[in-house]
Amino acid sequence: MLIGVTQGFLEFTVEDYLASSQTEGRYEIEVNQLDPRMRMPMCDKELTATLESPARPLGRVTVKVRCEGTSPWTVFVPAQVRLFREIVTTTRPLKRAGIIEPQDVTLRERDVSTINQGFLTSVDEAIGQKLTRPTVADQVITQVHLEQAEVVRKGDQVVITARSGTLAVRMPGEALSNGGMKEQIRVKNLNSQRVIKAQVIAPGQVEVAM
Among 102, 68, 96, 63, which Cα is nearest to 80's? Predict the structure, then answer.
C-alpha cells in the first residue's frame, strides 16, 4: 500500500515538474523496500503523500506518507528518481585548451538527475568552444569544461561585413580587442578610420548591421 501510494505520487509529481519546467526526458522511479517488520495500522482515511526532500523530484528523494485517520501515523519512504535526457558527450579523449570540433562531440542519453553542473542539450553549444580541462571518451560535457575560444585577437586584420537584408558591403578592418564567436568587439574601419562595434562571425571576420 505504502509503495503504491509513493509510486503514484512520485509519478504525478515528476510529470508535473517536467511539464511546468518544460523539460523533456524519460524518467524511472525506484521506491526502496521498507522494513518488513514495520506494521502500520489500517488507515480509515485516504493516505496523503508529500515530497519531504529535495525541492526538485529528482535523484534521491524522500516522500512523507501520512494517515490522518483515527489512528494517525507517518512514514518516510526513500526513493530514487532518474531522469534520462539526450546530452552532449565526447566521442574521444580531448586535450585541455583544445577547440571542440563537430566530430569531437555527440548526443547520448544519460541520467541527468546526478549531474549538478549545467549539461548541454545541443552539440552546437559545445562546437567552437575551448576546453578548460582534459576529458576522456564518452564524458559528459558541462559548462565548467568550456570557455569562449578567441577566434579574433587584438591587432588582427579582419574583414568587416556591413549587412542590410540581402545587401552586404565588405571593408578592411583591424580588431582592437580579442573576441570569441558571436561576441561584440571594437574594430577600426581602415577605410574611414572610424571605430565601431561588430560581432565576430568567423576567424578574421566580423559583421555589423547597417
Answer: 63
Q: In this structure, are 122 and 157 located in the same domain?
A: no
Q: Which domain holds residue 201?
A: 151-209
Report the predicted TM-score, pTM, of the whole model to 2 decimal places.
0.68
The answer to whether the CB of 77 falls within 8 A of the CB of 34 is: yes
Instruction: Give the Å distances, CA to CA, from 103 to 36, 96, 140.
Output: 52, 17, 15
- Produce one character per residue of 142-162: b if its CB has 16 or more CB atoms within 10 Å, e if not: beebbeebbbbeeebebebbb
**Which has more confidence, 149 or 121?**
121
> What are the tens digits of pLDDT across the range 174-192?
999 988 878 899 999 999 9
**Please, which residues have CB within 8 angstroms of residue 165's CB and are 6 or more apart in sequence?**
none
Question: Based on the structure, what is the number of domains in the chain?
Answer: 3
Nearest to 182 by CA among 122, 145, 106, 127: 127
Q: How far apart are CA 43 and CA 1, in angstroms?
A: 11
Q: Which three cell numbers stand for residue 115?
A: 549531474
Closest-CA residue to 130 (of 91, 101, 100): 100
In the chain, % helix, strand, coil (3-state, to 5) comes to 15, 45, 40
* Residues whose CB is less than 8 angstroms from the CB of residue 148 and which lie 6 or more positions away in sequence, other chains included: 129, 130, 180, 181, 183
